Amino acid sequence: MATSRHNILQSVCLGQCKSTDLPAQLDLSDNAAEMNRLWRRSIQQIRRGIVTEFGATLVWEHGRLLLINIVQGTAGEINLKMQVYKAQRFVGTFHTHPYEEGWLGIAFSGEDFASAINAQENLSIVHGGNRIAVLVHTDKSSKAVNRHSIIKRANALLKRYLIEGNLFDEAVLKLNIDLCAIHKIPLYLGTPDGRLTLRYKP
Ligand SMILES: [Zn+2]
To answer: What's the CA-to-centroid distance between 110 and ligand 1, angstroms?
Structure first.
């Protein structure tokens, strides 16, 4: 990886990225193979109508972003571990969003936003099969949020966007942008090769 791209990733992962110098692109291609492997495991039994979320803790160790503490959840829930080892710095979390119905590219839920903000994740990643979504927390982002109220707000927004005729994936993306605006969180979107572009800048 080129040095400048690596330095950008390091500053984002360690929470040192100022809202004023957010990169236009984020390169997670070094982690793409592992993230895609967890996605494939999530939909391994989809033909039998079974999907399971997979997740991991993101840490920075020896100048690299790593996925550790791989865990398996249920179809719609996962308990991610936050513990890291001594030489590691906590970066955030990764998890997948598989759907029995085959929906792809589903971004963050209200619950995901709550835990990303309250756990002070510098980087939060969701893999939706054909799309990877990333929240980056900067010096301007909310530091804490009421879990119940953000979930309630997300559900209300989802309902509104569905009634307006958006497909599920579009409705979720719209509510993500709304929550990012409220909590001053930049949103990146990209393909499973790990190359992401800044989609929403607060
Ligand atoms: Zn989720």
So the answer is: 8
